[in-house]
Design brief:
alpha+beta, 24% helix, 172 residues, 10-stranded antiparallel beta sheet
């Protein structure tokens, strides 16, 4: 009886600890958009919902929708980016002549993970260094595929719990 109580207590502590540590950390999101002309916006970034901070942005835009044959969007216009919007731009000192890719999500990114549908993708041409003077190039509200996603953190907790249980069983 005491062994069963110990196993239940350890399991409870592990589940609680794993879910708290996973949900508190910033997580890596993947973006996958395919437009009807074959253009794609793909890549990943890290988002911390607790602080509304983005980091490690590495997104590529490829295809006829984008004036350059391919370019990397590795920075954000912060005043337009939050838990449900991404305003991606190249990481250059002067954005004049570069393209800005604005993405509106159908929900908020959290530290819990999941998959969020994309409502809209709009491209703009920047007319000055900070891209506060711009004109719209394209606007899309239907896609072949469009989502941002991350693997569910709770899966990792369940896997860890299963491993602990199987190791404990082998020891007996």
């Amino acid at each position: 009886m005491l062994k069963i109580l110990n196993v239940k207590l350890i399991s409870f502590i592990l589940c609680t600890f794993c879910s708290l540590t996973v949900s508190a950390a910033p997580i890596k999101w993947a973006i996958d958009i395919e437009l009807f002309d074959g253009s794609t916006v793909t890549g990943n970034y890290v988002y911390d919902a607790d602080t509304n901070l983005f980091s490690n942005i590495n997104v590529s835009a490829v295809g006829p929708t984008f004036p350059a044959s391919s370019f990397t969007l590795d920075s954000l216009l912060l005043e337009w980016s939050d838990e449900s919007h991404l305003d991606l731009v190249p990481d250059v000192a002067d954005l004049t002549g570069y393209q800005d890719v604005y993405i509106a999500l159908d929900g908020e990114m959290t530290n819990e993970g999941g998959t969020i549908r994309i409502d809209e993708l709009t491209t703009y041409e920047c007319y000055n260094a900070v891209c506060d003077d711009y004109s719209k190039i394209f606007e899309f509200d239907s896609f072949v595929t469009a989502s941002v996603s991350v693997s569910e953190p709770s899966i990792f907790a369940l896997i860890a719990l299963g491993l602990v249980a199987s190791l404990r069983r082998k020891v007996k």
